[in-house]
Amino acid sequence: MDIATVGGLIGGFVLVVGGIIIGGNSIMLYVDVVSFVIVILGSFASCVVSVPLEKSMSAMKYFRKASRLQSFRKRELVDNLVGFADTARKEGLLSLDDTINTIDDAFLKSGLRLVVDGTDPDVIKKVLYADISQIDSRHEDGIGFFEKWGSLAPAFGMIGTLIGLIGMMANLEDTASVGPNMAVALITTLYGSLFANLVLIPIKNKLEDRNKEEMIFMEIMVQGVLSIQSGENPNLLKEKLEKYLPPTEREGTDLGE
């Protein structure tokens, strides 16, 4: 579990609730089931209209992805690829056959298998980049879903407010109810803004960041696989792949010629 995501969500709600309580108001003034239904379910229903049902039903899968800790150990990947390149250069590409079975990452395993099988470099490149494109497309579906939902939630907050105002205007003769009805009407605007800016948009941003990191991770794999296939010097490969790493991680032991 990603503590930053879960902790941020919980912390955000705690701060909002704490601000209400510190201000001397009862938290129950801000609880309204009808407003919740209009904003959350209404905006979700609009998303169902705008995207295929299958993608809408995958919303929880995208949320789990954002809340799950996902570490892309690029330094370790670079070192492994350089080691593979050194072994292949000294003992031949077929020497990697046993090594492939110990690799957990399916994408890297597939790329190295193509290399060991003697596949043409252009074919390897096309296959790997086609796989990356499909993964990126699936990620964009999740990012786009939360982006749409984040833009619709405040709008449904305003819709709920208008519904409340219409009901209030229809009962203006009861002056004692005007204030409470106005407060309830405004709650939907609060719900829409809070839900969009504390939950939906941050999740969208987290998914974008995860996708960017994964694309870099996979690009390192592609460059490593292609360099191994071409018999590139391990030192040159190390230097090339380290360009994808933060400056603080650009270190390692050089391999001999």
What does this structure look like?
- This protein is elongated.
- The longest helix is centred in the C-terminal third of the chain and has 53 residues, at 178-230.
- It has 257 residues and is an all-alpha fold.
- It has helices at residues 3-22, 33-50, 53-56, 59-67, 74-91, 97-100, 106-116, 121-169, 178-230, 234-241.
- Residues 252-257 have low confidence and may be disordered.
- The chain has a domain at 3-71 and 143-204.
- Helix content is 75%, strand content 0%.
- The two termini are 43 Å apart.
Report Rg.
Answer: 26 Å
List low-confidence stretches.
Answer: 252-257
Q: Order of SSEs, N→C?
A: HHHHHHHHHH
What is the residue-mean pLDDT, rounded to a whole number?
87
Quantity of strands, as a count: 0
Shape: elongated
- What is the terminal-to-terminal distance? 43 Å
Number of helices: 10
Counting helices, strands and paired strands, the structural category is mainly alpha
Strand content: under 5%
Could you describe the largest sheet, including whether it forms a barrel? none
Q: Helical content, roughly?
A: over 70%
Secondary structure layout:
Layout: H1 3-22, H2 33-50, H3 53-56, H4 59-67, H5 74-91, H6 97-100, H7 106-116, H8 121-169, H9 178-230, H10 234-241
Helix pairs in contact: 1-9, 2-8, 2-9, 4-9, 5-9, 5-10, 7-8, 7-9, 8-9
